[in-house]
Design brief:
heterodimer; A: about 100 residues; alpha+beta; Ubiquitin-like (UB roll); 2 helices; about 15% helix; globular; B: about 150 residues; alpha/beta; Cytidine Deaminase, domain 2; six-stranded mixed sheet; two-stranded parallel ribbon; 3 helices; about 20% helix
Chain lengths: ~100, ~150
């Protein structure tokens, strides 16, 4: 029986959330998909959850996840496959009145 | 936040230039133990399709581009600014509803009849229930506008 090692990817953290990641701008996360990698991030740093997810457990509307230069919304969403050379980023959409 | 008169003047000038529409942009600098230290701004186009007199939008693509440009200079995106044309420099209900992460500094400049007036800074409360005023402390470091 063969075993596979989950992909490890670099994930870039927005400036204000680095207080939850020990000041690190980049965190190594494991997961073969973007959704799994974000879930792994929250497992590593549970205090991030309230900032990334709303009370219903869905990503907040202003939170976008990028693989390299592309929003996963325009790829395969949370199922977007990751390679070890990819860089994930959490990118806020900013708006107001 | 800690910043310079030059940064604040650049925000005011942007607000006057886009009047009667809202301007918007990024605050660039460093997070320090004493709060956000803003050393430069990066203007960005208000991507709101309509009603730019009352709304502003910064796309994630624009954020990503600004964050990379900042990083190349050893800086971070530490907040955002926008203008309130003919309205006070107070966060609106829309500002609160659309707020992102606590920890960013949100600067608002009031532009009355085309002339910049009050300029204020705010931070989203940790429970996201409100914006709290953030003091603006001025230093005299030489800075450059991007």
């Amino acid at each position: 029986m063969s075993t596979t090692t989950p992909t490890t990817t670099r994930l870039q953290i927005p400036t204000p959330l680095r207080s939850f990641t020990g000041g690190n701008a980049t965190v190594a996360v494991t997961g073969d998909t973007a959704g799994a990698a974000i879930a792994n991030l929250v497992e590593q740093f549970p205090d991030l959850k309230q900032h990334l997810y709303d009370d219903e457990g869905t990503l907040r509307s202003f939170v976008n996840v990028y693989v390299n230069d592309d929003d996963i919304r325009y790829l395969d969403g949370p199922d977007t496959r990751l390679g070890s050379d990819d860089t994930l980023s959490i990118v806020p959409a900013v708006a107001g009145g | 936040m800690q910043t310079t008169p030059h940064v604040l003047d650049a925000i005011r000038a942007h607000g006057e230039a886009t009047y009667p529409e809202e301007c918007c942009g990024f605050l660039l600098g460093r997070v320090t133990p004493d709060g956000n230290h803003v050393t430069a701004i990066q203007q960005v186009t208000n991507r709101q399709a309509t009603n730019r007199e009352r709304r502003y939008t910064i796309t994630p693509d624009d954020y990503q581009a600004a964050a990379r440009a900042a990083q190349a200079q050893g800086l971070d995106v530490v907040g955002f600014y926008h203008s309130h044309p003919d309205h006070p420099a107070q966060p609106s209900e829309t500002d609160l509803a659309e707020a992102t992460f606590p920890g960013y500094t949100y600067v608002i400049v009031s532009v009355q009849q085309g002339a910049a007036q009050n300029l204020t800074a705010w931070a989203l409360a940790p429970d996201r229930s409100r914006f709290d005023p953030e003091p603006i402390n001025l230093d005299t470091t030489t800075v450059s506008e991007l």
